[in-house]
Amino acid sequence: xxxxxxxxxxxxxxxxxxxxxxxxxxxxxxxxxxxxxxxxxxxxxxxxxxxxxxxxxxxxxxxxxxxxxxxxxxxxxxxxxxxxxxxxxxxxxxxxxxxxxxxxxxxxxxxxxxxxxxxxxxxxxxxxxxxxxxxxxxxxxxxxxxxxxxxxxxxxxxxxxxxxxxxxxxxxxxxxxxxxxxxxxxxxxxxxxxxxxxxxxxxxxxxxxxxxxxxxxxxxxxxxxxxxxxxxxxxxxxxxxxxxxxxxxxxxxxxxxxxxxxxxxxxxxxxxxxxxxxxxxxxxxxxxxxxxxxxxxxxxxxxxxxxxxxxxxxxxxxxxxxxxxxxxxxxxxxxxxxxxxxxxxxxxxxxxxxxxxxxxxxxxxxxxxxxxxxxxxxxxxxxxxxxxxxxxxxxxxxxxxxxxxxxxxxxxxxxxxxxxxxxxxxxxxxxxxxxxxxxxxxxxxxxxxxxxxxxxxxxxxxxxxxxxxxxxxxxxxxxxxxxxxxxxxxxxxxxxxxxxxxxxxx
Length: 506
Ligand SMILES: Cc1cc2nc3c(=O)[nH]c(=O)nc-3n(C[C@H](O)[C@H](O)[C@H](O)COP(=O)(O)OP(=O)(O)OC[C@H]3O[C@@H](n4cnc5c(N)ncnc54)[C@H](O)[C@@H]3O)c2cc1C
Fold this sequence. Notes:
With 506 residues, this protein is an alpha/beta fold. The chain has three domains: 3-49 and 60-83 and 226-307 and 449-502, FAD/NAD(P)-binding domain, CATH 3.50.50.60; 110-219, no CATH class; 312-381 and 387-428. The chain contains 19 helices and 18 strands. It has helices at 14-25, 71-78, 111-121, 126-133, 135-148, 155-161, 163-168, 173-179, 184-191, 206-219, 229-241, 284-289, 298-306, 324-327, 342-347, 395-414, 430-437, 455-460, 484-502, and strands at 3-10, 30-33, 46-48, 51-53, 85-87, 91-97, 103-108, 222-224, 245-247, 252-257, 263-268, 271-280, 312-320, 333-337, 354-358, 373-381, 422-428, 471-473. Strands 1, 2, 9, 10, 11, 12 and 18 form a seven-stranded mixed sheet that branches. A seven-stranded mixed sheet has the order 7-6-14-15-16-13-17. A two-stranded antiparallel sheet has the order 3-4. Residues 10-16, 33-36, 41-43, 56-60, 251-252, 281-282, 313, 315, 378, 433, 437-438, 444-445, 475-476, 482-485, 487 line the site of flavin-adenine dinucleotide.
């Protein structure tokens, strides 16, 4: 017999979990379908030998603390979960740039300490750094207003009340920094963070970057004690506690439409499942490929095709048979680049670009057994950076060569010995992420937030985004863009919106 639900959510990534938790909590008969045997998508964990690795999360922004909760903290709290948050203390990151005008600096957490650490590295930059950070509350006020008007803000109100937002929102990070008189070295120091957003700062929207940077500066980075799997399991608990169902090993292979073009369900495991509303955590490209193409409005197809896929990554996970002290790593996050300029870092990514080294034991000392530690390397690359002529039989060598290259580089750049201590190693490339997440080109960030398709444009144009009756999207590919916090926020928003619609409140 066909099964009927109020809401079907496709994909148990961060966005899907947050959406399903909200609709279930609102009393709606909710079904969450996930193709894997565990929840989380990117937000999971995996074991090799005696090590449990975090596969994706370096830093979660917009968490805040119990005393000063920020939006992500509130989302988990409102859903009744109890997360063991841990915080990176002291420095938010160390950044090493080699070559001419290079540097090796540690930037501190907390506005005052951050500004001081910047001033120490670049005397005279203080005023411009403060001015840059001061834009953030203005951004928040403007975004709140745009949301309150459902994307139809009054032009005069924007000009009169949100003038600084209007002056800056359409510009890149570097354009705004330069306009504020920030010296180039200060820009390069701060802008190393582009690696976490996947778009170099001469192209990245200023407000998008500031949104993330500010939260890290104020609160430091937060992460759950038991890897991101803790977050995913907590949301599954909420769904099940409120009577929702979570079906694993249930890949959706088709989206079902009514004659009038509205969505009415999906097919999973060969079974037709119906719902009043479907929420997709799966990227629109894949949804459209699983749909009767005649049912997709032409404008939606054009929008999807006009968007570029976001960045992917290559990652190396190491379990070492020595403690973090013996290894000699004192920082949680180190950015290392062949050149101080983010554009050059991006353009030389195949060779001597940017790589990031994280050592979780520096935030959670007992995240591995005593006398051991883990390292997590991240190299921002695109799916189409993987050589087109790479043959399946050569893939292992490709991964091994990549790992060797970056481990040797880190030994040299950080002055530590890694190779003799490797007990476990796992290497992932965009191919791994394409395979695991099912995303085109292995994008981990959905569509690239850049140019006409920047964060501000997406938020302002949300109502005109993909618009198929009965279908909502949530996840890193949607209006808030990439990252854990964005995926949770949009999942939470969409879940609440759908619940309100079905309960007659919207
Ligand atoms: C290596 C790495 C490092 C990262 N570092 C950070 C970081 O430090 N900070 C940060 O904020 N963000 C980071 N991110 C990005 C962040 O993880 C993602 O932006 C975010 O988790 C995306 O969430 P999502 O909701 O879009 O779901 P996804 O994680 O993309 O999950 C989608 C889910 O849908 C499922 N699915 C797909 N197709 C189907 C189908 N047909 N049927 C059923 N299920 C399906 C998938 O199996 C998956 O579970 C990182 C990502 C990676 C990979």
